[in-house]
Amino acid sequence: xxxxxxxxxxxxxxxxxxxxxxxxxxxxxxxxxxxxxxxxxxxxxxxxxxxxxxxxxxxxxxxxxxxxxxxxxxxxxxxxxxxxxxxxxxxxxxxxxxxxxxxxxxxxxxxxxxxxxxxxxxxxxxxxxxxxxxxxxxxxxxxxxxxxxxxxxxxxxxxxxxxxxxxxxxxxxxxx
Length: 176
Known about the structure:
The protein is an alpha+beta fold and 176 residues long. The protein has a domain at 34-49 and 65-170: Pnp Oxidase, Chain A (Roll). It is 16% helix and 40% strand. It is built from four helices and nine strands; from the N terminus they run H-E-H-E-E-E-E-H-H-E-E-E-E. Strands 1, 2, 5, 6, 7, 8 and 9 form a seven-stranded antiparallel sheet that branches. A hairpin with a 5-residue loop joins strand 6 and strand 7 (128-143). This is Phage tail protein. It comes from Pseudoalteromonas citrea.
């Protein structure tokens, strides 16, 4: 077999880049927010992951494996850039209070605090090339943005871990 040729690489399509993407929430009923405001402020996101369990089979001294159940990681991490109008903090606080009211422990119904999320990779023309649709998202962990101090010139970066039930994925915006 011949080695790799430069023309083979030159004939590949554009490579998918890490910095072209959008994140869209269907806001939970109990938490009103403008999803475009969060998309603009979202600095980074992890991509959903899956793992395949193995089944070990041993028969009369022979050892083989076959694929078993596929498990999704069921968490995703997002980091935001906070602005002085506290858009991100207000949204996260309202969502947290819907999950567990601070003074009373009251919780809204699951259908009111869960939402769906679309994480869409974009090409160089900002057109969708691959979408992950996360079903049943809710806040699992909140980091309100780090440590306040006089020795830094950085911004507040709240980050969240969202749990989800499962995800679908597909080319472009075709994921239903």
